[in-house]
Amino acid sequence: MNQINLGRVLIGGIVAGLVINIFEGVTNGVILASRWASVMTSLNRPSVMTTNQIIAFNIWGFALGILTVWVYAAIRPRLGAGPKTAMCAGLIMWAAACAMGTAVPVFLHIFGVKLALAGTAIQLVEMLLASLAGGYLYKEDTVEALRSSAARA
């Protein structure tokens, strides 16, 4: 089995993270902004995020993008290269990071179910598109692949 091309994981992951951050900014900063402000006010927290919080969320988005492309690279030898495998990686990461992460505050009655479902549904589209973009840029190192093939022969 070939080694994962970490340089390409970073390149694809940054692009995937950019998609994630754009979606998150539009979703939470525009579409759901008033609903989030109500939630934060009900928790006696400021309704507007600080610059440091926005930076932290953007770092989280890039980290999620990089992890998503890493998952794509890891499952690629078994499922094959291409959009179907990229979407599987996106679905895995959506379930692990988005859906399951949103479930806890819903269980604790911090977020309402409608708000959580709206955000999580948008995140599904976000993660599928991010994984397609990042997966498109991921390539195996052809020199390493040829060496690996020759060593096995």
Protein traits:
single chain; 153 residues; mainly alpha; 6 helices; elongated
User: What is the count of DSSP helices, taking H or I runs of 4+ residues?
Assistant: 6
Number of domains: 1
Secondary structure class reads mainly alpha
Q: What order do the helices and strands follow?
A: HHHHHH
The count of DSSP E runs of length 2 or more, i.e. the number of strands, is 0
Q: What's the mean pLDDT score? A: 92
Strand content: under 5%
C-alpha end-to-end distance: 13 Å
> Tell me, what's the shape?
elongated
Indicate the percent of residues in helices.
over 70%
Main sheet specs: none
- Which stretches are low in confidence, meaning pLDDT under 50 for 5 or more residues running? none
Compact summary:
The chain is an all-alpha fold and 153 residues long.
Task: Walk me through the structure.
The protein is built from six helices and no strands. 82% of the residues lie in helices and 0% in strands. The two termini are 13 Å apart. Helix 1 packs across helix 3, helix 1 runs antiparallel to helix 5 (113-137) and helix 3 crosses helix 5 (113-137). It has one domain (6-138).
